[in-house]
Design brief:
The chain has 138 residues and is of the alpha/beta class. Helices cover 23% and strands 37% of the residues. It contains three helices and eight strands, in the order E-H-E-E-E-H-E-H-E-E-E. The protein has a four-stranded mixed beta sheet. Strands 5-8-7-6 form a four-stranded mixed beta sheet, covered by helices on one side. Strand 3 and strand 4 form a beta hairpin. It is globular. It starts with 5 loop residues before the first strand and ends in a 7-residue tail after the last strand. The relative contact order is 0.18.
Length: 138
């Protein structure tokens, strides 16, 4: 089964604050799929994060009878995104920290793989990872 795109739906408390944060990290938004309740953050050509005001997000999950995760106490998911280099990992995380993110993990260096993580203003965990392509066996 082929899938063309991924849309990750994330609840946010303050949409404008969250958009401002991710704009400082370097992301853009697709206005065609954004309004006062949602913002479509473009991560790459085929990857998007739908940032949804909590009440609006709740309407998506109302049939499950589940509550929105309290990210101050629980982890819902770690969003891991690839980077083209160790330097890009550092640049992205440093931009996030300068924009108000909280550190999550210190950088992890396995030699062939390097990663670093942060928490966004809503407590979602983001990790940027670089894997040296020369270490991947064909």
């Amino acid at each position: 089964m082929a899938t063309n795109n991924i849309f990750v739906n994330l609840p946010v408390k303050d949409l404008n604050k969250t958009k401002e944060f991710f704009s400082k990290v370097g992301y853009e938004f697709n206005p065609q799929f954004s309004n006062e309740q949602a913002a479509c953050m473009v991560i790459s050509e085929n990857i998007y994060a739908m940032l949804l005001v909590e009440d609006y997000f709740q309407s998506f999950i109302q049939n499950t009878k589940k509550e929105i995760t309290d990210t101050s106490k629980n982890t819902e998911v770690i969003l891991a995104l690839s980077a083209d280099s160790r330097e890009e990992v550092n640049e992205l995380v440093n931009r996030a920290l300068e924009a108000g993110a909280k550190p999550y993990n210190d950088p992890v260096d396995h030699g062939f793989m390097y990663s670093w993580s942060f928490q966004d203003p809503d407590g979602h965990l983001w990790e940027f990872v670089y894997m040296d392509p020369s270490t991947i066996q064909q």
